[in-house]
Amino acid sequence: MSDGVSSDPASDAPIRGRIDAESRLVEADPELFGLHLRAGGEEGGPLALPQVASLARLAARLGIVISRSVIVADATSDFDLWVRAQPLEGGAIELSILSWSERPARKPADAPESEREADFLRAAADWMWETDEKLLFTSVSPAAAAAARTTPADLIGKELTHLFRLREGEGGTFPILSALAEQRRFDNQLADLRSAGGGSYRLGGVPLIDGRGRFAGFRGCATRIAAEAPAPPPLGPEAPESSAFGERLDKALRAPLDHIIANAETICAEPEGPLRKDYGVYASDIASAGRHLLALVDDLVDLQAIERPDFRPEADEIDLADVARRAAGLLSVRAAARNIRIGRPADDETLPATGEFKRSLQIVMNLLTNAIRYTPEGGQVWIRTDREGDLAALVIADQGKGVDPADQDRIFGKFERVDPTEPGGTGLGLYIARRLARAMGGDINLDSAPGQGARFTFTLPAR
Question: Is residue 234 part of a domain?
């Protein structure tokens, strides 16, 4: 390695390095080695850049190449890096830094007032976190992991919603989703820690920009908020018992299932060395079954809510075209993994309707997830807006194998699926979606034929 003198990293050639299975920096170009030393590292010692080391561990654990934006620092500067981590034989990781941007660690005295306020907010926060552009954690404070009863390493690479259950704000919107769509700062995103007794938090974040000027995620803070006053007791005579059951079910099952899934995924990653092939298959099956059970828990909790006699969704002024664009954005990674294109409404297209934003997004997410699941790899899913008299209509069409007319009413039943042998959902998603749509004054209808795909139409009262 070099003597640690950093040279100008402005050329187009990647800055390279290699760490071994023990996270020691064994090879590095001068720029990376110099930054490693200035951050407190030693020659031949563990990589002293925690964000890069975490990215490398994640790549090793998953066994795939990961490219992500990270921010590291020495005593005087912050560095925005775009790092590519590629697993090698023997647990080593090859690092390629594709972009490198340096900026002062502290803002000048004439920084905008809004930025100084953000600094004070972060200073007062209980803990910090960072995500990439897909809202996958790249860095989490140890205090966050402790609150969630896990470790920071177990949270790296997980979705932000794996840790938090987001709550809508004023007007039924989610500040973090609006900020993600517009790649801007957000504040006052209310969220509940998913672990039992985890409490409620207020999230805020500022966008991260990589060395090429692209949006690369959020740097955020989480501040614990006092418990809110309990909601008024339900009106229906059976509602208290069913509501309490749903809450107990969620708390009793979620944490153990999260733990089972995390341990199974760790076994699959073979952190202690190669396993027998069948052991890895068993662990993968356990993780898959755990995720299926978590989805069932979510559906059962929703089922308890919508079947309460006093269940009444909010009647907000919403834009169904905007809901569709948000759902498509949240599911874009899943669709891209199967090379499926999502044709979403244009950015300037609107479809005013009356309904609850959170429940409408839940319905569209369910319909779009099914469309992606059943569309062949390389196919396309379409989302179109329409008007049907006094109803606003959102149409989601896929290129799947279609549904026989004899089964089209049955699939909206509770625990019903056309083919129970196929991998997929719990048989509750469409039942819950239609119940929610009808509770808001709308409906969900299906137009399909075998071999011709499916066309679901979600309607709400137009405004």
Answer: no
